[in-house]
Amino acid sequence: MAALEWKLDGARVQVHKSGNEVRIYTRTGNDVTAAIPEIVSTIQQAQAQALILDGEAIALKPGGAPYPFQDTMRRFGRVLDIEVMRATMPLSVFFFDCLRRDESDLVPMPAAARFEAMTAALPSELLIPRLVTNDIGAAQAFYDDALERGHEGVMVKALEAPYEPGARSAAWLKVKRIHTLDLVVLAAEWGHGRRRGWLSNLHLGAIDPARGQFVMLGKTFKGMTHVMLAWQTEELLKREVTRDDWTVRVRPELVVEITFNDLQASPRYPGGLALRFARVKGYRPDKKPQDADTIGTVRGLYARQGK
Questions:
Q1: CATH assignment of 2-176, given 2.40.30.170, 2.60.40.10, 3.30.470.30, 2.60.40.2470?
Q2: Residues 7, 17, 157, 219: which is the catalytic one?
Q3: Is the whole model's pTM more than 0.85, yes or no?
Q4: 7 classed as catalytic
Q5: Interval 135-170: pLDDT, tens
Q6: What is the CATH number of domain 179-306?
Q7: Which helix (DSSP H) or strand (DSSP E) does residue 235 occupy?
């Protein structure tokens, strides 16, 4: 048996309640209580004198679909006109763990017991949607429903695990949607540290058939082995066009398969879109640049993601 919970693309928060006082902190310890009064007033109604809760704050559209991540973060970090923003883009919060309830320290308790204690203290609308099952079909349906609602995927959690603060725990497993695109390398930046001497951070582009040009969508240095770094450095230098101190621009000839979680609007790049959590899956020597994915394909994916 395991617990499955929605994986939300929001802002991680830890909420502390003591009597009628509520404080809200980010994962880095910043106090953001003043920026999200709607969460403060909600927690003040909880059925406990003292609570420490772990959760995710997220901006949801009227139909329940999430706003893009950067919209949530702009709302989350707002310090001016908070009441105006609260009316137009209220933040919701979903809690998935409870570290303390009244006098009970729940950190060493099994996850199932912590969730049960939290359920007794909070109204159901503040609890992360959750399924406990050992049935693969039920788990798949729960995952599919989370994606259909616009969320990232699910977290799969061991029921007996204690809370492990600040750790990447094997008791928590992310299962998220992954997309792939075949993109063209437009440039690369020299690496640092253990990657010094190799071209590492790739500039990635999709083809615009109407103009016969490539539209940059972002960069990535993730997913590369030492063998790949050595190979791509040699191959990119063969295709060098210009360079500065940090970047080598190349002829757009190498196609690389990129995995990523989703797309976000970005004024930083000419196409107005950027890849999130991009990493290299592998080069595609079987493909020519004209076989790469088009900017139209990318925009279509972004439109479907928004729905």
A1: 3.30.470.30
A2: 7
A3: no
A4: yes
A5: 999 999 999 999 889 888 999 999 999 998 765 567
A6: 2.40.50.140
A7: helix 226-238
